Amino acid sequence: MDEEMLAPLAGQVLSIKCAVGDAVEEDAEMIVIEALKMETPVFAPCDGTVKEIRVKEGDYVEEDDLLVILST
Amino acid sequence: MMKGFDSLLVQSGFFHMTLGMLVMWVIAFVLIYLAIAKDFEPLLLLPIGFGILLANLPLSDLMQPGQGLLWRFYHHGIQWEIIPPLIFLGLGALTDFRPMLANPRLIFLGAAAQGGVYVTFFVARWAGLSLVQAASIGIIGGADGPTTIYLTSKLAPELLGSAAVAAYSYMALVPIIQPPIMKGLTTKAERVIRMKKGRKPSNLEVIMFPLATTIVVVLLVPPAAALISMFMLGNLFREAKVVDRLTKASQNELLNIVTIFLGLPVGATMNADTFLRPRAILIFLLGLVAFGVSTACGVLMAKGMNLVSSNKINPLIGAAGVSAVPMSARVVHKVGSEADKKNYLLMYAMGPNVAGVIGTVIAAGVFLTLLR
Questions:
Q1: For position A15, which CATH number holds?
Q2: Fewer CB atoms near the end CB (10 Å): N or C, chain B?
Q3: Nearest to B177 by CA among B58, B93, B284
Q4: Which residues of A touch B326 (CB under 8 A)?
């Protein structure tokens, strides 16, 4: 089953800490979004494997935009 | 020959230095050091620190009424009330009201967090300050630099330097002052509350907002007109999206230029004779009270709203009702994520944060209405 990881807030993607194929645990730091000059890490919602990364560094995302798809 | 040398020495500043001036040099160097080494509100405290140094070099006529360079900046920029409203124009162009419009009830938190302004006003009165001085010190609790400068220069110009330095210092200290108060007034269960998503405001709403706010606030408290009208004009530039050049000019070039001419003369008002009095210490203490009470009022208001509403608010975001944008929203986010790292409070906290700016301007307008 796939689990979608959404942007919790609007901002710019500062860095991506995972790659397609990675096995990640729940609460692992996946992506860092910068908003209001503050770095906000986004954590994995569950254990799984990274199936797809929908953003790249430097992208501007809106709240609830799809960031990563995890297959569990 | 020796005689000529003597008179040159006597006419130099060295013979006119006083102990008070040296103390002011120390204060100036401390502010400059904090700005450069500790990133302590450098945009304001660096020029303010330099202005303090200049004001305490004897025999220069920089602050001489009618002729000094800094006096002209001060007179035409601040006494003529030009610079603080221009700062507000830039801030308006930088401010996104969507987080507040998405969750309009958060406006109450921004209003409640002005509590410190009024509480401190009465405390300062009780401590023996005059009405106008008490108002100028109370407004520090709003955590809004240009509003503090605007109000103080109109009501109690003799306090301008101290009030401005207190306001900007406490703003730099937001991450130290606020968290203990926020944690002390909330339980862990309250700090992990996740907020329900707000709605998405329409484009029509964000354009109508500055227009409607201008009309309502100016009709309600006419003396707030200079600040609120420029604030909302800047915001209208931003949201109209057709005057990109004006938006950018207000946000960047204009804001940066007037910032230079704000800090320097404010610092220059702080000469040893007017600043080195017990009153200055009192102002710093009362300013801290104002800040703390405002933070507490915001948090308590959120807790109060939770008593009557089933859609719970994380009470931490009440602390963002003080208008230190976006520092206090960041602090809220940090304290929230210490309790639950997947709780993203930043954007929710921006709601009361921007509402707080309007609240502080209104508080200043109320003082001007009542005290002038």
A1: 2.40.50.100
A2: N
A3: B284
A4: 36-38
